[in-house]
Amino acid sequence: MAAALASRLPKGGRSLLGGISNAFTGLTNSSNGLMNGSILSQQQQHRTFIQMGTILKVVDNSGAKKVMCIQARRGKKGARLGDVIVGSVKDAAPNGKVKKGTVVYGVVVRAAMQKGRADGSEVRFDDNAVVIVGTHKDKEKRKSDGKKKHFEYNQPTGTRVFGPVPHEMRIRQQLKILTLAQHIV
Length: 185
Hints:
Elements (H helix, E strand, L loop, with lengths): L1 H7 L2 H34 L10 E4 L5 E9 L11 E9 L10 E8 L4 E2 L5 E2 L5 E7 H10 L15 E5 L2 H4 L3 H6 E4 L1
Parallel strand pairs: 1-7, 8-9
Antiparallel strand pairs: 1-2, 2-3, 3-4, 4-7, 5-6
Keywords: Ribonucleoprotein, Ribosomal protein
Organism: Microthlaspi erraticum
InterPro entries: Ribosomal_uL14, Ribosomal_uL14_CS, Ribosomal_uL14_sf
């Protein structure tokens, strides 16, 4: 078809069409190079634990949008899927329950680091996400009241959980988060 079109065009048009086809082949070659480069960068990308300084997305309606991890409550290396972290709210909605700068406790519901399952499969998410289960003020208030000696991390602050939540939360005794979740994977 290109040859038939080129024969109908005047002599100057033939060079124009040839230039377009050459540019098109160059474009496809460069896009293949970009695609191969992105595949290599994905393979070289190293996924790590959620550690101090990691920014996590908040996936509930508590009012916070982003949380920076201050400390992982379990393990020396950092937190994984289902672990509790202490974080500071970095970005929040103006009329939410949780304000910017508040120290909060959160449960990691999505982690970019892969986690093996009992059936041999592995689960890994695109982002790191957390559900807020309490604030530092709540913990101090319960200690002063003398009701409970330790703070329990199983009551979320929000009333909805957005996005997929893995069924490993059941093993971690986070049943309330599972009941609020839209999708369980």
